[in-house]
Amino acid sequence: QVEFVESGGGLVQPGGSLRLSCAASSIRLSQYSVAWYRQAPGKGPEWVSSIGSAGMSLKYADSVKDRFTISRDITKNTFYLQMSNLKPEDTGIYYCKSEEYWGQGTQVTIAS
Questions:
Q1: Which pLDDT score, from 0 to 100, does residue 1 have?
Q2: What are the tens digits of pLDDT across the range 5-44?
Q3: Which residues is 46 bridged to in the sheet?
Q4: How many CA atoms lie within 13 Å of 99's alpha carbon, on the beta-carbon side?
Q5: Cα–Cα–Cα angle for 37, 56, 25, nearest 5°?
Q6: What DSSP string describes 19-56?
Q7: CA 112 to CA 99: how far, in whole Å?
Q8: How far apart are CA 67 and CA 57, in angstroms?
């Protein structure tokens, strides 16, 4: 049973930072590309960032480019999303995904 466990969400002020983590079980991140998605209230899921199976081919949505950084630690079978200079429009539930498997989501709220 493939499982992703996300953590790191929370409430921060605009301009702040958060680091999301996604720990994987029953799937080797070194063999699959992984991605982060988010869903704002009342909207559909939005792709945020992805990293290829070789740990290269890092891609970002234009809305987060130069503010977010995706990375992974193969030894921990975990990948991350470092988010900086956060804006209120970054608010939403953040999900990690690989293949057809999704995490349960972690809430990120950006507000004063």
A1: 81
A2: 999 999 999 999 999 999 998 888 888 999 999 999 899 9
A3: 38
A4: 12
A5: 55
A6: EEEEEEESS-GGGS-EEEEEE-TTS-EEEEEEE-TTS-
A7: 36
A8: 17
* Other residues' Cβ atoms within 10 Å of the Cβ of residue 36: 27
The C-alpha atoms of residue 13 and residue 85 are separated, in whole angstroms, by 9
> CA 48, CA 31: separation in Å to the nearest integer?
20
110 C-beta neighbours (distance < 10 Å), count: 20
Lookup result for tokens 């004063």: 112
Closest CA to 112 of 92, 94, 87: 87
User: Tokens in use for 30?
Assistant: 């070194």
Q: What is the pLDDT of residues 33-51, one digit of tens each?
A: 999 999 998 999 999 999 9
Residue 82: which residues within 8 A CB-CB, separation 6 or more?
Answer: 17, 19, 68, 69, 70, 71
